[in-house]
Amino acid sequence: MSERKLDELVEASVTAHRERDLEGRLTPLAEWWDLAPAALDDLFQRQLLTREIERVLDPQGRSATVKAVLARIGGAY
Amino acid sequence: MGIDRVFGLVCQGDHEAFAEWMGRVERPIRLSLRPYARAVDVEGVVQETLLRMWLYAQDRGAMLTGENASLRFAIGMARNLARNETRRLKREVLLPPEKHPEIPIPPDPVPDPGLAKAIADCLQQLAGRSLEALKARLEMAAFLPDRLIAAAVGMTLNTFLQNIVRARRQMAACLQNKGVPLTEIPS
């Protein structure tokens, strides 16, 4: 796999958006399953940085993770 | 207000307090899941933990006592979820061999304004489609999948992701030039 393609696969999994499966579980994105262990380490760091950037840039200081959870419990985000 | 007092309001069903509490504990919870990063979808486990803590707070949250009790409980819950998910997915082989001791991780304080300025400055240095894609992702990722965000800004999914990757690299280089450590950003 080219470095560029791998970068895109990791990036696709950074998002906070998750679907639920029929049993109600939050499911990983399809791209996540294709990531090798080293790429999953990279993903962890990218998510850490991304959530921090989201938090810093949001007027209320909320990351996409926080907003996603608020949306699921019916709170204002 | 301390995290325990904020959680006290969460126990009364206060959504705003819950948002504040999540902002204080999200990063420590995420960091506690580092040993599971190769085995489970950490983002999913973090969200599931926060959702369950909301339910737990209404039910038995008032029983949590002691300094940072809600955070300590949430970290334990997150690790349990991660362990169960690792077993369910049959990915135990991807866990590191050593045991994972319970490391006390304090809640996040209010974000550093210097860090906020560095991030805002670096974002301003982006331009064109990369900036457009990254901003759209930052604004909508909590609610929409990437394919819909890409469509909203008139890009194919592949182009959208390529632009995000480009933007992230530029952001990372800019932050490093400003002396911001990328892997352990302090709050």
How does this structure look, described?
The complex is a heterodimer of chains A (77) and B (187). Chain A has helices at residues 3-14, 37-57, 64-73, and strands at 19-20, 26-27. By secondary structure, chain A is mostly helical. Chain A has one domain. In chain A, helix 1 (3-14) crosses helix 2. The radius of gyration of chain A is 14 Å and the shape is flat. Chain A starts with a helix and ends with a helix. With 187 residues, chain B is mainly alpha-helical. Chain B folds into two domains: 3-94, RNA polymerase sigma factor, region 2, helix turn helix motif (Rna Polymerase Sigma Factor, Chain: A, Orthogonal Bundle), CATH 1.10.1740; 113-177, Arc Repressor Mutant, subunit A. In chain B, 63% of the residues lie in helices and 0% in strands. Chain B has helices at 3-10, 15-32, 42-60, 69-88, 113-124, 128-140, 146-152, 157-177. In chain B, helix 3 packs across helix 4, helix 5 crosses helix 8 and helix 6 packs across helix 7. The radius of gyration of chain B is 19 Å and the shape is globular. Chain B starts with a helix and ends in a 10-residue tail after the last helix. The relative contact order of chain B is 0.11. The model of chain B has no long low-confidence stretch (mean pLDDT 89). Chains A and B meet through helix 1, strand 2, helix 2 and helix 3 of A and helix 2, helix 3, helix 5 and helix 8 of B.
Spell the H/E element sequence of chain B.
Answer: HHHHHHHH
SSE order of chain A: HEEHH
Number of beta strands of chain A? 2
Q: Return Rg of chain A in Å.
A: 14 Å
Query: What would you call the structural class of chain B?
Result: mainly alpha
Q: State the end-to-end CA separation of chain B.
A: 17 Å
Strand residues, percent of chain A: 5-15%
Q: Biggest interface and which pair forms it?
A: A-B, 51 and 50 residues
Please provide the count of β strands of chain B.
0
* Count of helix runs of chain A: 3
The main β sheet of chain B shows up as: none
Percent range of helical residues of chain A: 55-70%
Subunit arrangement of the protein = heterodimer
CATH superfamily of the largest domain in chain B: RNA polymerase sigma factor, region 2, helix turn helix motif
List low-pLDDT spans of chain A. none
- Please identify the structural class of chain A as seen in this structure: mainly alpha
How helical, in percent, are the residues of chain B?
55-70%
Largest sheet of chain A: 2 strands, antiparallel
Could you say which overall geometry of chain A the principal axes of the C-alpha atoms support?
flat
